[in-house]
Write a structure and sequence with these properties.
By secondary structure, the chain is of the alpha/beta class. The chain contains 10 helices and 11 strands. It has 2 domains: 86 residues, Rossmann fold (3-Layer(aba) Sandwich); 125 residues, Rossmann fold (3-Layer(aba) Sandwich), CATH 3.40.50. Helix 1 packs parallel to helix 10, helix 2 crosses helix 10 and helix 6 packs across helix 7. The structure holds NADP nicotinamide-adenine-dinucleotide phosphate (NAP).
């Protein structure tokens, strides 16, 4: 039976560190703050924004919410981002995605000051990630790295296989594993004989966006399996991209859904907000 990689436990550990850092900064007269912009009434986005607000409250981070109507224009959003870029009392800016279709996400992300881009989506921060010079980290993949570190899982020289090449998860995941000296294979929907790659993985990260996609036969014995996926099943329960019940019997370590990568993403966002505050106050 695989050992469980608990995102609940690792995120609690990371959140405690973040709360301690916020307190240290507050003691120096520095407040830490995050501005969250949400446009429209998408229920899932509202839940995510609410969770981020709650996390801020718990850790002593000030949060500002900008809940804007569905018909907000591109220019109105650009003006708001510009105002937040220039405000000294705002350290991090996050624009909850997806935005309504009439808005151009890319140009809005590019308008956020790289120093306040706590999602690490701005091309400057993506470039810094690849050159190893970035201080802000892509939240979900950074959460996976933190989980591996917490459980003392060595990455150096290991065959790491990532399924999925999205800009938010797969690509930055491959970059972070490479930076830690993993030998990385990045798979996607055009990959031929996927199973031949996954069966060689010492560390397998599933970010494919398909429920229970990774089954037992695809996994090498004793591999570390990290499940980034999150899906609501017909019975109302959550599941990941990995068939947990099958794969648990062959893997060495496995992260569950829920209680795996999910809580790590918000914990990393909070850490990034503190990092942004440190950068802006030149205490890093
Ligand atoms: P995405 O943008 O839909 O990307 C999915 C990737 O999987 C694509 O690169 C796609 O390849 C690849 N893929 C699709 N079918 C495949 C197949 N049959 N074989 C191999 N590769 C295949 O998804 P995402 O945003 O990266 O998210 C992935 C999952 O993680 C989703 O379930 C999402 O809900 C979850 N997620 C969780 C968190 C969290 O905090 N836990 C955060 C973000 C995302 P192509 O590029 O060729 O199309």
């Amino acid at each position: 039976m695989a050992k469980i990689i608990s995102g609940k436990e690792v995120s609690a550990f990371l959140n405690q560190k973040t709360a301690d850092e916020v307190k240290l900064l507050n003691d120096k007269g520095i407040a830490v703050s995050l501005a969250v912009i949400i446009v429209g009434d998408d229920p899932a986005s509202k839940v995510y924004v609410n969770n981020k607000k709650k996390a801020c409250e718990k850790l002593g981070i000030v949060s500002f919410e900008y809940a804007l109507p569905e018909n907000t224009t591109q220019q109105e959003l650009l003006d708001l981002i510009n105002e937040l870029n220039n405000r000294n009392d705002v350290n991090g800016i996050l624009c909850q995605l997806p935005l309504p279709p009439h808005l151009d996400e890319e140009s809005l992300i590019n308008a956020i000051s790289p120093e306040k881009d706590v999602d690490c989506f701005h091309p400057v921060n993506v470039g810094r990630l690849y050159t190893g010079t970035g201080k802000l980290k892509p939240c979900t993949p950074a959460g996976v790295m933190e989980m591996l570190k917490y459980y003392d899982i060595d990455i150096q020289g290991k065959n790491c296989v990532v399924i999925g090449r999205s800009n938010i998860v797969g690509k930055p995941m491959a970059a972070l594993l490479t930076a830690q000296n993993g030998t990385v294979t990045l798979c996607h929907s055009k990959t031929k004989n996927l199973i031949e790659h996954t069966r060689k993985a010492d560390i397998l990260v599933a970010a494919v966006g398909k429920p229970k996609f990774v089954v037992k036969d695809m996994v090498k014995e004793d591999a570390v399996v990290i499940d980034v996926g999150i899906h609501r099943m017909e019975n109302g329960k959550l599941c990941g991209d990995v068939d947990f019940d099958e794969v648990e019997s062959v893997a060495g370590y496995i992260s569950p859904v829920p209680g795996g990568v999910g809580p790590m993403t918000i914990a990393e966002l909070m850490e990034n907000t503190v990092t942004a505050a440190k950068i802006q106050n030149q205490v890093i």
